[in-house]
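Fig. S4 source data, part A: sequence.
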Amino acid sequence: MKKMCFFTQNDLTSHQRSTGQRYFEFLRVPDMSAGLYVLPAGSVDGQQPHSEDEIYVIMVGRGEFTCEGETRPVAPGDVIYVPAHADHRFHDIAEDLEILVFFAPAEGVLHQRRQIVQEGEIEVDTDRTRLDIELIHQFLTTSYWAKGCDRDLVVRSIQNSLCFGAYEGDNQIAFGRVITDFATFAYMSDVFVIETRRGRGIAKMLVAAMMAHPDLQGVRKWNLHTRDAHGLYTEFGFFAPGEISSYMEFRP
């Protein structure tokens, strides 16, 4: 992007509402990204620490903000700097908040290089801005592994994962994400192909793209859980260990 871009607050708010998402990214260049973050009164800010430095500019609303144990009230005109990896969140939101958010470098680039894989009319892309959140939520909320999950949970999981969408033209037809530290561990999750596009090898293309992502090469261990897709994953070297006594989990 080598020319000026001009945005109005009304246009940003309108676009954010049309997406149905709390966070609407409206600008992305390699060294920074910007978005509008909206938190309704009384809502919970579930964000996690980011790998990038951030600046928040409060446009509308009132509430409180805590960063690394220090709490301040926030109101229109306030500007907040948050260093990378700092634990922070908005809370006690008394009036709907509209917040401009600036990331430097662009959100996600420290851990995620964009990957595009094309086979015929099908394209697999890691650009999260292309994801059809409604389609993903509608599928997952009826799936056996995430039945009844709410939309905010899906959005938060996408924001904190390396995500892959498969597209036919402008329409998303498949999805998968990897939860990873990019070094020792990669967990493949939420992989699906919509019913009308199954039987065409799209799942195999998607999994292959996920495992071939350049930022995941050298990861020491991959794993996943599946009830009925063992045949797909064994083609990529996955196996069911005979001894799982070392596996433990906690579900609050």
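Fig. S4 source data, part B ends here. The longest helix spans residues 9-19.
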